Amino acid sequence: MIFLSVWAFGLLGFASVIALLYFLRRREERVVVSAIWLWEEEHERPRSALTFLWTKIWLLLVQLAALAALVFSLAEPTLTREFIGGGTLALIIDGSASMQTAEQGGTRYDLAIARAVELIEQRRPNRLTIIQAQQSPKLLVPLTEDRARALSALKASRPTFQGDAALSDIIELLRSQGGLENFHEVVYISDHAPASSLPIRWISVGEPKKNLAITGFAARPVPDGSSRVVVWARVENFSSEVLEGTLKLFAEETEILRERISVGPGAHWAVEALAPLQHRFRAVLDVADDFGFDNIRYSVIPKRPKLKILWLGERNFFLMRALSTFAEVSIQTDETASYDLIIAHNTAIRPAGAALLINSAAEPWVVRAGSISEPGPLQVLVPGHPLVQNVRGEHLRPTTLSRAQLAPGVQTLMASGGQPILAAYRSGGFSFVYVGVDLKNSPFVLTPSFPILIRNSIYWLIPELGLPSERFVSDEFATPGFADQTAVNLDPTESEINRSSSSSFVARGDSAKETKSQIYTPIWYLGAWAALVILFGEFLWAYWGLFRRRGWSDERAL
Amino acid sequence: MSRSSLRKRDESFWKRLSALQLLVRHRAEGQAGPWTTRRVGMSLEFAEYREYYPGDDFRYVDWNLYGRLDRLFVKVFHREENIPVYILLDTSRSMAVGEKLSYAGELAGALSYIGLKDMNRVGVFTFARTLIQGVPARSGLSHLQKIFSFLEGLQPNDQTSLSAALEEFGKLPLRRGLVILLSDMLDPAGYEQGLLHLLIKRHEIVLVQILAPEDLEPPIEYEARLVDSEELAEFSVSAGAVARYRQRLLQYEHSLEAFCRTHQIRYKVLVATRPLERVLFEDLRGVLFV
To answer: Does one domain contain both A369 and A458?
Structure first.
């Protein structure tokens, strides 16, 4: 038995009040008798006052019993017993990619289905719902009484290539079907424990397996104007033994690397390779393991957008190179022609459209006022801003810094010694990014952060370009009708196919494979009834005592 | 007796009372009344024969028997006489417990009516430590109003002393008669001497003991401070003492009953909550009434 409202036991403190009132009220009753001489032999009293107080306290005990029963009721006592059948069952089956791991001639998902079928036939729930849990959870079977239909839908389901589900999404799906309390049992069948403290029973499937996986693969242009790409790959061993394999990297269909690798248990291995500028890249790992879907990964370099730039002020070689790594740039100086962006370097301009101000003024928004030779420590004021993503502060540290006064509304993102180094403003059709560094006198242009900052700035100033996300292509998931196919890379965590427990999960029952659960039966009303009966009994006793005293039967005397 | 008690009784009550007649077993002297005695009297109702003794009236000699048996016998006739009725009412403070005094007053009023309607002389006397006051014995229903007024003014006072009070009553220059004693008889000094004194005075005694429910079952649940109604003492007892008290009360009652039986005193115990009609028409029949 458990108590849902333990706070109610605090009300037992009233027992002291009842006892106090009882003892304060307790007095010797004065009884006038006709013949006290018939009582004289009883003259052995009095006893001590304390003894008197603690004798014949049954009335107090009755009242305390009533209080105890009332408190018991308010504490919401609930009986728990093992659920052996019937009821409402919520079955959550893990449909993430790791469930495709080879097991006993099939997959883990097949094992999970077998366990689920076994569970349903064993429990024979009155109603059940089945949810396939992955990154985008799927309601396989809405709450139904039709077990045959549920089993059929379950057997027809297949695991996905998605990552793990967020438990909160699953809970929402259950809540949408009448609330969590509607379910007598929630069972989660997976190869790893759910990270939840909710009363979910986990049934584990799968045994430790061999898996060597590509968990990282990326390609990016080298920002030196050489039209080359650096490709990076990472391989991890999730097994308890050394695994060997061959890693091959492809640019389009051209093999750019082939390397025999040997990775120890729990270790990882990484490689970089230069390749000509191409659009699609692929990494393939030839290895004999139990989970093949993480042995290939894809990467693309998005095609560069075309930008027309109105350049004002001094030209700068590094700035041009940085621009050309992610865009096809055409420079013009004619202010009357159409352009996408203004770049001003060491000059002052009239504010209009989108502008990248490199050590330049745009009054009244940015007013320059000399320079500082020894700026103070650098501060990143808005770390989450898109302009500072992947920009390392120490790269931006200038030797000299221009003084600038910014108008109200201009957001300072990075500052040094109180002076803005990086600021941004956007309102209506006017936006600018201010970089308070003289590119000629700063090593900033030589750091990796420089092209990143320029790229961030361009995409922030021209949002319609659309910041390219990491998109991956795969012929296996090609969708007819699309030039660039849908890309799928496995979530790297899915390669961890030997996860079996979670420290945040508290399994109920003696065994993780235990299939019994609890049914909660509230019994608060028993306490309420007991209190009522006790109080009514006390009332009856008092009434009967009164009656007996007043209505003394004279027949008895005669 | 409260004013609203006997005076408010309906006519049927008094009619029923009229049918009752006091029971007197001993001979009595006095004027003509409802009771027939075996004394040679003026009644025409023949009682028996008895042998002639010198001095007997020759007019009652049965000469026919003398002719047959050659012995002298005289006829004995019943004689109708009345007898004074003295109602002695205990007004000590113990009678205030459980309204015994009020109950006794009502009973005394009813008995007075029964006595007076049969042309008897009825007197009512109250006592506690001593004889306090009373209404002298008179006959005639007109005397009833005086008795009622007297009874309505009863107040409990003083301690009980049955022996002293009854002895004092016995010393009054009264004709022997029927003494109806209405009391709880709870006197630590005893009752025997007083009752014997009345017997010596040749009174016929009917003892009606009136007890309150509280006397029989004291209302003590846990502990209680006992206070004597006559302020004799005060002390505490526990509920366990009630049973032992009842045992002693029972012994006291047994001894009282045995004393009455020995001395041919008619005795009846009543509880002050019993309806008066049932007492008069059921309980006291054969004890006080014919």
So the answer is: yes
